[in-house]
Amino acid sequence: MPRRASRSFAAPWRFRPWLTPRRWPLAALGVSALMLAAAHAFQAAGYAPCHLCLRQREVYWSVIALSAAALAANRFRPNARQAQLFTILIALGFLYGAGLAAFHAGVEWKFWPGPEICSGGAGRFQPQDLNAALAGPQRVIRCDEAPWRLLGLSMAGYNALISLGLTALSAFAARKPA
User: Fold this and answer.
1) In whole angstroms, how far apart are CA 99 and each of 21, 73, 103, 134?
2) For the chain (length 178 residues), average pLDDT per consecutive 10?
3) pTM across the whole model
């Protein structure tokens, strides 16, 4: 008589890993939401975001939207190629975020100049900005000054590392069969 496999809690996870094209969008959505929550927590603690910080947040919002679209598509029209394509797009989104965060970290370390809008220059002045300019001097949040560092890395540096790790996980998930 053949032996039946035990129905332990760990058994299903061993054969059905979570790092697949169909399941990764949910994890990417959750991690992106956590990264945005952390960014807003730093802002609530008094660390005002600069222009590049806000651009890095846009990447996570884009990944959330892409992940939601992937989850909906996987739910209503399951297709292995489609799930893999969405996972590759999520990987590219995280890769772009890693590059943007690395650029920001380089600006903070003065390896290269940052955008003009972060340095207190004129930038693009719009007519609707005239009232704010007449009201008095505006505080410019500089992109080349890291307001917080831990073990030598700023928030942008940690974001670059986290985004690079998420890129690797996304690429690994895209390789797995759906």
Assistant:
1) 23, 28, 6, 37
2) 52 56 88 92 83 88 94 86 90 94 86 73 58 58 69 83 93 77
3) 0.75
Please, which residues bridge with residue 154 across strands? Answer: 149
Long-range contacts formed by 159-162: CB under 8 A, 24+ apart: 159/35, 159/56, 159/97, 159/101, 159/104, 160/98, 160/101, 160/102, 160/104, 160/105, 162/35
Alpha helices (H) in 2-154, listed in sequence order: 11-15, 24-44, 51-76, 80-108, 130-135
**Which domains are present in the chain?**
19-175 (1.20.1550.10)
- Residue 143 confidence (pLDDT): 64
Please, which residues have CB within 8 angstroms of residue 48's CB and are 6 or more apart in sequence? 141, 147
- The CA distance from 113 to 30, in Å, is 33
CB 77, CB 146: distance < 8 Å: no
Q: Are 67 and 29 in contact (CB under 8 A)?
A: yes
